[in-house]
Amino acid sequence: MTSADPAVRLDAITKSFGGRRVLNQVTLEVPEGCGFVILGRSGTGKSVALRHIIGLVRPDAGSVFVHGTDITELEGTELAEVRKQVGFLFQSGALFDSISVGENVAFPMRRHTRLADAEIRQRVQSKLDSVGLGSDYDKMPGDLSGGMRKRAGLARAMALDPRILLVDEPSAGLDPITSEEIDELLLGLKQNQKTTLVVVTHNIPSARKLGDQLVMLDQGRSVAQGTVEELEQSDNELVRAFMSSSHAG
């Protein structure tokens, strides 16, 4: 990686499932330390684009770069090394229901480090404190509200202090107040830890708060990219209408 490399670059990514083209020649660059938002209506390929960044999906054509490394064909230990630099907050939080909240956050540390149990416990407690769940180490995921599960998922996604955090629909299933609280936690990571955020959403207030740069996808194509103000003044009527909505589906 050089100082000029973006944190993430998708180069002409094309992907189809079952004969349906979900992404069509999508190109985007995410600057280091940026809050980058991928916008679009449901079914436009937003989450598929996100999953390419961590190698959960491979493109049919095009290339994926993370910190200057082409990960398109990486497998095994090489891909695992890249993934250590990238956290992923899934819509549901994606917690393991059979282990405690604390052990969920500890899981990446046990899997990818050789830290002693006492050190892991201390680090997990710090992560839980940072998301407002300091007293919930021993609770089971089933005992948490939707917002608490999202917070716990965020703590686990940040367990290894990744340089990039991928976030899939952070406001999904949450009331507006809880959604705003999650946004504030994400904003804090960007501002205080210089974490690069790549956020998929169709929630416009969330996009305005988190997005230094935004890209809008429609029918698998990138139809606009720029700042909030630039998208608001886009020549594309669909983009302007989307940006003027409070919550677009």
Explain this structure to me?
It is a single chain. By secondary structure, the chain is α/β, with parallel strands linked by helices. The chain has a domain at 98-154. The chain contains 9 helices and 10 strands. The chain has helices at 46-52, 76-83, 101-112, 117-130, 146-157, 176-193, 204-210, 228-232, 237-244, and strands spanning 8-17, 20-30, 35-39, 61-66, 69-70, 86-89, 164-168, 196-200, 213-218, 221-226. The strands form 2 sheets. A 6-stranded mixed β-sheet has the order 6-7-8-3-9-10, sandwiched between helices. Strand 1 and strand 2 form a beta hairpin. Helix 3 (101-112) runs parallel beside helix 5 (146-157). The model has no long low-confidence stretch (mean pLDDT 92).
Tell me roughly what share of residues is in helical segments: 25-40%
Mean pLDDT: 92
Strand content: 15-25%
What is the H/E order? Answer: EEEHEEHEHHHEHEHEEHH
- In what order do the strands lie side by side in the largest sheet? 6-7-8-3-9-10
Count up the helices: 9
Distance from N terminus to C terminus (CA atoms, Å) equals 37 Å
Which outline best applies? Answer: globular
Question: Largest sheet, described in full?
Answer: 6 strands, mixed
Give the helix/strand class.
alpha/beta
Radius of gyration: 18 Å
Query: What is the β-strand count?
Result: 10
Model regions low in confidence, pLDDT < 50 over at least 5 residues = none
